[in-house]
Amino acid sequence: MDTAQKRRFIRPCTFVWLLLMLLTVTTYLIGEAGLGGIAVMLAVLGTAVVKVQMVANYFMGLRRTRWLWRGIVLGWLLLVTGLITIAYLTAIK
Amino acid sequence: MSETFTKAMARNIFYGGAVFFFLLFLALTFDTIQTLPKRDHRENITDSVVRGKHIWETRNCVGCHTILGEGAYFAPELGNVYKRRGGEFIKGWIKSQPTGAPGRRQMPQFNLTDQQLDDVVEFLKWTSEIDTNKWPPNIEG
Amino acid sequence: MQFKSQAVAKPYFIAAIALFAGQILFGLIMGFQYVVGDFLFPLIPFNVARMVHTNLLIVWILFGFMGAAYYLIPEEAETELFSPKLAILMFWIFLVAGALTIVGYLTVPYATLAAMTGNDMLATMGREFLEQPLPTKIGIVIVALAFLFNISMTVLKGRKTSISLVLLLGLWGLAIFFLFSFYNPSNLVLDKYFWWWTVHLWVEGVWELILGAMLAFVLIKITGVDREVIEKWLYVIIAMTLITGIIGTGHHYFWIGTPEYWQWFGSVFSALEPIPFFMMTVFAFNMVNRRRREHPNKAATLWALGTGVMAFLGAGVWGFLHTLAPVNFYTHGSQITAAHGHMAFYGAYVMVNLTMISYAMPMLRGRSANSPSAQVLEMWSFWLMTVSIVFITLFLTAAGILQIWLQRMGETPMSFMAAQDQIMLFYWLREAAGFVFLLGLVLYIWSFFKKGEVQTVA
Amino acid sequence: MTTDTTTPDEILATPPGDLAIWFFIFAELLAFGVFFVAYAFARARHVALFNESQQQLDITSGAINTLVLITSSYFMVRAVAAIKQGLSRECARWIVAAIGLGGVFLAIKLAEFHDKFSAGISLSTNTFYMFYLSLTIFHFMHVILGMVILAAVMLKAKGGGYSAENHTGVETGASYWHMVDLLWIILFPLVYVIH
Predict the structure, then answer these.
(1) What predicted TM-score, i.e. pTM, was given to this entire model?
(2) Neighboring chain B residues of D123 at a CB cutoff of 8 Å
(3) Which chain C positions have a beta carbon within 8 Å of B41's beta carbon?
(4) How many structural domains compose chain D?
(5) Per-residue pLDDT, C1
(6) Is the C or the N end of chain A the one with fewer CB within 10 Å?
């Protein structure tokens, strides 16, 4: 891997790293403010989905692999967060 | 098969995973042992209860009955029999076996002394007081 | 057979099959006692028959494991067994101890047997599956240690393959976890907690390592697939087994006085326990499909594939059916448990032993495979036994569902015996299926005596 | 060991690292996934209890730990990039930094546990704390396991055991470490924030 390739490897990851930090701070502020409710729940969970996808695709390097591997992680993620959402919605009566 | 799938790595994961989960199991076991006194009321384990358990074992009761759901499924659950029937009924029942009713399941006669019968009842009474997370679902066991 | 000392496996296999036959006979007696309660009473009360049935099962499976190890280890280590004499001596000690124990169960009242054998000094008897008198238990430890010494020394002086390492690990684990059978506190909750360390960590832990190693060995031999590939998958499968199975012990800690969190740990991890069994099935079929040779022993291939499928169904699917705590609340200690136990034990441990015997026995008798006609007979026995165990499981499952419905649900639950009377039909059907199983077993034993044209080992 | 001649644009047949670690990763994802879902459904049955107990958690330390793990994960990306250029020493240094942040995570978490334990909280306190402690301790142990794996990789890297062509081991360790990070990214909002 030469320097140009290295830059193409690292640059997006650095960007992703900064974005992840930013999103974490957002989640933190929402938590500190004590916000709740469906919209907030969906926003925070949606943020987590985006963050996990970034970690999986960039840090773990799955964006360079066949769709199968990305599919497994994405499928897992959507299933888990989907069920969590359903559980939270059933709790609101 | 991919060439980046090595036996050495598979072996490391086997050893690592086994040790990791066994340690977790030990940690949970440690917590369980710490918590149990609140659930098993061990302060009520009298000498009589101890003797009763010994009789329970040496008559192989678990070969037909279940206790807290474990054992054979040929005869009724006895974890809660004290609550279901009471001590006097249990003693009378054991003494009157076998019924000899043709074609029915038979329980052997163990020729227990009155003291031994009391011990068995004490053991079953203590067992019925264990916090079993509300199992069995109803009094029939 | 490449090494002369592998021959010590033969008596172990013969004893295993003989005891297997005994186990089935007592199973049939118990099955009949389920429908005609006073059958053979007081000659053989149900509890005695059950003790004989389950103890014979354990002992013959141990015989099978030991025979398998004596056959497999020299071939894997590429050296003669450390001491064939010790192996034969241990065979007789184990057989005599086992036989005396069974005779003791059948001829002496259990309480007298306990008093005679020092149970008052160290009380270990009278707990499910661990009913053996103290001398028998000590005998098992001695035989196990001598056996482990023998095969460990063999591996140490020879080639160390992954298969023999996994097998050794499983067998050492078997011996170590058996030591918990000597711990019997008077607190029933503690007693049960550590009783499972022997029982669960055997059948859903270290025994699966033994099973995996035996299956991998036979698959290498009959398919000719590259050892690296098979051993790699062996590691992945047993890694999954222990990752899920160790914490999976928690599915026994729902209702015995242990803290509530076990309902979560037990449910989550044991729900994942079918995964390694599923992988094993896929693995077995995959390897057979990628075979590089046509082994003349078709029966052994059938048993190997059958092990994968039936272990998955019995241990995986039937285990999963009642492993989640909210379900287990109703099914715990019912005929559902019995259904699962029958198919899981047959599918995993009976079948893997029969796979090994099917592969090794012809070799031990100087041929690479039995005659085609003997194999046809053996394959008939495979289908008869396997199909009848499926039916036994289905009938017991039906009985269990009905039992739970009548006895544990609704406003006016029936008493235990009243519920039993209602499900008698399924017990009759189960007993009928049991006789078909016996027929399969008879054919199986007959197949060893069936003459015919055989290929001799070059 | 294999030779890596891929460029960043090539589509790989299998994910970075040894495929065996991915079986492990998927198994772990599954176990945690089931636990996350179980948490959510248990909460649905005891909403008030969960909301009340959740408020006693320290969101700040949870958030800091998220930042720590994300950064540590990023350091592992740098470690992989370094070894792809054949820079063993630089790779080892990035891994040391990643492990160091893992240590910071553990320290913060220990302080949090100490707080809870000295308040007399245990697995049997209530259903919320059962989940909080189970999930975080389970994850905590994964951080330790990840650090052990990274330490082994680091030592090998330092000794020149990897090269630009042959570095599957580094990618294997990195993949596992990213998974530990990934799980915390869900765990933190789920247990600390959402109500």
Answers:
(1) 0.94
(2) 31, 35
(3) none
(4) 1
(5) 78
(6) C
